[in-house]
Each structure stands twice: as C-alpha cells, then as structure tokens.
C-alpha cells in the first residue's frame, strides 16, 4: 500500500535540498525505470503498476528495492510527468569522484550549461556517440534534477561524471581542449584527431573567459542560413559527430 509518508518522501525529492540530504533521486516512466533496473544503480523503492511488476518480475527480484503496487492515477500524482502510467523508482546516488583522462578517448566538458533539459539531452548525445566520461563546471545544472534524468531517456546510467574547477582539471590533464566558439576554425576543416576534451559553453554566453584560456583549439560549426546560433545540445551533437568521424582508430 502507498502510504502518506511514502508519498511525502517521494514528493520531497522534487527539491534539490532533499535529494542532497537523502542522497537519493527518482526516475519515472517505463523505459527509464527498466534502464535503471538493468544498471548498477541501487534502488531503494519501486512504485509500479501490476502490469509493470509482472512484465519485469525477473529484474525486480534481482534488485534490492522495496516494491509497492500502485494505480496509474497514483503514479501520475507522484512524479513530474502526468504521462507516467507504469513505474517510479527511488534510487541511491552514486559517489562520483574525479577520474584520470581516459587515453585515446574524448571527454565531454560543459562550462555552466544551466538548463536541465539541455544537460539531459547532452548526456543522451554523449551516450549515442560512445562518450562515457563527462566533466562539468561547478555551476552546470544538477545531474540528478528530474528534468535531466527524464531527458536522458536512461542514458544517465551509462556515463561517468564529476563537477570540478575546469581550469585545474584541464591543467592537470594536459590534453587538447576543443572549445566551441562562433569565431573558431571550421570543424569541417579539421583533419584526424585522436582524443581530447570537447568543451561546450553556457547557453547565452558561451565558454567563459577564465576557461577560454585553457582551450587549445577553437572550433565552430559553419552556418549556411540566417540563424544567429544553435542550441547548445544540437551544437554538441554536431561536434560529437564530426570528432568521432575524424577520430584516429
């Protein structure tokens, strides 16, 4: 049975201060919950319909989650999306610490990308292109924000990340940093590349001046029409496509 205390607890996780306090977040929707059940994240609680429980019985039994059966109407009132008619999971956050630069790979860096929807889409893009490691400036949107988690469509389970002072991180790594600038070199003119950081900036202001000094290669996406700029998530996809195509195997 779904108690009032359980509902109150799940509702509290809509707010960052309680997510941080409890070190937990929630995932909603059939696809995303199945993804987290298949991952190495630890589930605390699963609230789901009878049909979802029956369909995913094996996965649920292999998890440590406490399972509560609920109606579609109850689920719609728990999360942030009224279209959720299958399941909601309360999940323990991972301890994410800094990592050494992965030799021969690309790392995606974000400098103050503030919009949760953009961050979630960028995480999904990284997963599509096989970029498993991301580093965020300290003022980038919160990874466990419900809008971020929803926008990743499960891709959050397959990436590593940490928040850091990007200047110190890039200085320690001492690898090429390819920064997105409107006045950079045409990315189509690049030749083979081996690895490095693909750095994207804030939605309004781009890469900040204090980080720009650590960019070794300024790149841009050539435009052929009248638009002033591209959305940061779309620009990330275009650059990732170009860099992965040019990557020395």
Sheet-strand content, in percent, reads: 15-25%
Number of helices, where a helix is a run of at least 4 consecutive DSSP H or I residues: 11
Mean pLDDT: 95
Structural class: alpha/beta
What kind of sheet is the major sheet?
6 strands, parallel
- Give the helix proportion (percent range): 25-40%
- Unreliable runs: none
Spatial ordering of strands, largest sheet: 7-6-5-9-8-10
How many extended strands? 10
Cα shape: elongated
N-end to C-end Cα span: 54 Å
> Taking Cα atoms only, what radius of gyration do you get, to the nearest Å?
20 Å
H/E element sequence: HHEHEHHEHEEHEHEHEEHEH
Features:
alpha/beta; six-stranded parallel sheet; four-stranded mixed sheet; 11 helices; elongated
Give a summary of the structure in a few sentences.
With 249 residues, the chain is α/β, with parallel strands linked by helices. The protein has helices at 4-12, 16-22, 30-37, 50-55, 57-61, 72-76, 116-128, 146-152, 166-173, 209-212, 232-246; strands spanning 24-28, 43-48, 66-69, 87-92, 106-110, 133-137, 160-164, 177-186, 196-200, 217-220.
Can you put this structure into words, describing what you see?
This protein is α/β, with parallel strands linked by helices. It is 35% helix and 22% strand. The chain contains 11 helices and 10 strands. Helix 8 links the parallel strand 6 and strand 7. It is elongated, with a radius of gyration of 20 Å. It starts with a helix and ends with a helix. The mean pLDDT is 95.
Write the layout of secondary structure elements.
Layout: H1 4-12, H2 16-22, E1 24-28, H3 30-37, E2 43-48, H4 50-55, H5 57-61, E3 66-69, H6 72-76, E4 87-92, E5 106-110, H7 116-128, E6 133-137, H8 146-152, E7 160-164, H9 166-173, E8 177-186, E9 196-200, H10 209-212, E10 217-220, H11 232-246
Parallel strand pairs: 2-3, 5-6, 5-9, 6-7, 8-9, 8-10
Antiparallel strand pairs: 1-4, 2-4
Helix pairs in contact: 7-8, 7-11
